[in-house]
Amino acid sequence: MTDEKQPVSRREFLGMGLRGAGVLVAGGALGVLAHAHATTVWQIDPEKCTQCAGLPEARCATACVKTPSAVKCVHAHAICGYCKLCTGFFLPQPNDLNTGAENQQCPTGAIKRTYIEDPYYEYVIDRNLCIGCAKCVKGCTDFGNGSLFLQIIHDRDHCTECNACAIAVACPAQAIVRVPGTAPYLIKTSFK
Amino acid sequence: MSSRLLQFVPLFVVLAALLALGHWFAYGGRLPAFAARVPNQDRGANIAAAPAPKLTGVLTAGPGTPAALPGAWPAFRGANHDNVNTDPVPLAREWPSAGPTPLWGIDLGEGYAGAVVRQGRVYVLDYDQPGQQDVLRCLSLADGKEIWHRAYKVKVKRNHGMSRTTAAVTEKYIVTLGPMCHVVCADAISGDFKWGIDLVRDYGATVPPWYAGQCPLIDGDRVILAPGGSKALLVAVDLATGKVAWTTPNPHAWTMTHSSLIPMDFHGRRTYVYCASGGVTGVDAATGRILWETPDWRVDIANVPTPVLCGDDRIFLSGGYNAGCMMVKLTAVGEKITPQAVFRLPAAQFGSDQQTPIFYKGDLYGVIPDGRLVCMDLTGKQLWSSGAARFGIGPYLIADGLIYLCNDTGTLTLADAVPDGYHPRAEAKVLTGHDAWGPMALVNGRLLLRDLTRMVCLDVARH
Predict the structure, then answer these.
(1) Which pTM does this prediction carry?
(2) Cα separation of B36 and B30, whole Å?
(3) Which residue in A has a C-alpha nearest to residue B41's C-alpha?
(4) What does the alpha-carbon distance between residue A163 and residue A119 come to, in Å, rounded to a whole number?
(5) Based on the domain organization, do A73 and A161 belong to the same domain?
(6) Per the omega criterion (within 30 degrees of 0), is the bond before B339 cis?
(7) Number of domains in chain A
(8) A109 → chain B, closest CA residue
(9) Does B193 touch chain A if contact means CB atoms closer than 8 Å?
(10) Which domain holds residue A18?
(11) A52 with A33, same domain?
(12) Across the A/B interface, how many CB contacts are shorter than 8 Å?
């Protein structure tokens, strides 16, 4: 008997390497799939959101660890009335129905209003300007179709996915829930 | 070598600091780009006026015949403009499980226009979307078959419904006010055209957002309209001839709302009360002169409910969009009439988005913005609410001590109209569509109500 190790040939070495890589790839793929199914993220349920009614400011705008907040207004155009007098765009007592800053709900001018044809106007949210204050959402929910609502934006520029969501803790309506990472948004599809 | 390099380190540090400072000045401290928010950025400022329609229109006969049934619901909110039916016909206090018996139903264009009834005929101002025309339909109260219809071309796009006004009818004439502020008077029996007015062109009116909701008021031999235009705030027109009896000037440039005019007799003088865009006014029925006005009540988004008379000298005003309500009391010293607020309540206590509350036997009944039916006394004290029972923004009326309420999706509820509490009696699903917001009409035990696209006639009499 001898305890001398036989040298590994180049062919055997490459074979072992490939087998090992295959195991790693398969394991990694299974891991990713399992992770994707198991991972959940925070999201605002628009049916539960009260726009922090009764509070001086919306918690989504102030409690998020990101500045400005990772919460943004989104617009379900399919249920928008395209109204000339949009209660999400205009203050309750506007001086006039035009785009002057003094008439607008949005403090940052994040809602772009465009005339389509009489009597319709389109409203589009500029996400870069939106701070998640919910003023437009409240106006639209209280008096309109409810097509404007808040969502936590899941991309590298917004939600940090820290799993310790500060606004979920601060939300007075407990409207922030865990949803699957594969379907991270709760989009409204019908009138309020 | 190393010591020579070391002597350059301070220079490198200074250069790096200068570069960093320059970068900070150039980019770091700059605010994000901003733009002024000024009017007309939506490019919607110059909307071309629509061509004037030919209001003479076209009359088309149908197969229906008038019902041989007495009773009338001749105007928005009934004969007395109070939404209280005083027919002697007793009404059912309970319903079978399937609800009141449906007598007939018809499909209509999208809208909320209510019906008026007189001489066995039902009138409703419909909008025919494929034909792009306002259509005054005259139907038989017996079976809903069309006796005639009169139509004129006008383009109205879908915008939360299209029709939304209730006509006014006398024995001879019927007057309609269409979504684009076109007023037409026709023979109530034959349907023949009598005269027409375009409130936009003739009086400088502005079509309100979501189209006109004002219902014309017939008082005696005149129809009273509120164009709220540059040429007149109110106008009285002779029914028979279409001639203008008087116009009221519009010194504050108040505009038309969805609210309707209501007659009021005060200190022996007939007046008309109107909620315009900038306030409330009372106008002399004989001359059109403004007798009093107040800017204290305005609902900028959409002023829909009509003023409610509470006794001889009080007017109850309510609105949606957080407007709440206000009770106004008129006092007269000589010729001078002064309106004063008795109380004002927030929307959570009493307000009304679309329907007009009802003053009945000394108390007010109305569905407030959270959907509850509420009974309130004339001091503003809530006597009771319907609690968990909610009714949306659908219509309600009172008859024979009962209140009928229809919710947004066509469920009809029957309850006692009494001040000692909410006592529901029956409930039934009577419409299958949505937005069942059109005002109801009740004649001779027959209740007419509608959703967005269908009107039905129910037998609610006691048999």
Answers:
(1) 0.84
(2) 17
(3) A99
(4) 45
(5) yes
(6) no
(7) 2
(8) B37
(9) no
(10) 9-38
(11) no
(12) 64
d(CA B134, CA B181): 11
**Domains along chain B with CATH numbers:** 50-459 (2.130.10.10)
Inter-chain residue contact A100 with B160, CB threshold 8 Å? no
**CB count in 10 Å sphere of residue B210:** 21
Determine phi and psi for B375, rounding to 5 degrees: -115, 130
* Structure tokens, B441: 């009409």
Q: What is the DSSP string of B299-325?
A: -SS---SPPEEETTTEEEEEETTTTEE
Looking at the structure, do residues A93 and A157 belong to the same domain, yes or no? yes
Mean pLDDT of B350-376: 96
What number is the average pLDDT over the span B94-110? Answer: 97
Q: Do A125 and A99 fall within a single domain?
A: yes
Complex ipTM: 0.71
Q: Is the pLDDT of residue B45 over 60?
A: no
Q: How far is B427 from chain A (nearest CA, A)?
A: 24
Identity of the residue in A85, A93, A99 whose CB atom sits nearest the CB atom of B41: A99
Residues of chain A in Cβ contact (below 8 Å) with chain B: 81, 83-85, 87, 90, 92-94, 96-101, 104, 109, 113-115, 118-121, 142-143
**Residues 281-300 (B) with a CB less than 8 A from some CB of A:** 300
What is the 8-class DSSP label of residue A79? G
Read out DSSP for A20-52?
HHHHHHHHHHHHHHHHHHH-EEEEE-TTT--TT
B336 touches chain A (CB under 8 A): no
Token pair in block for residue B120:
């066995």
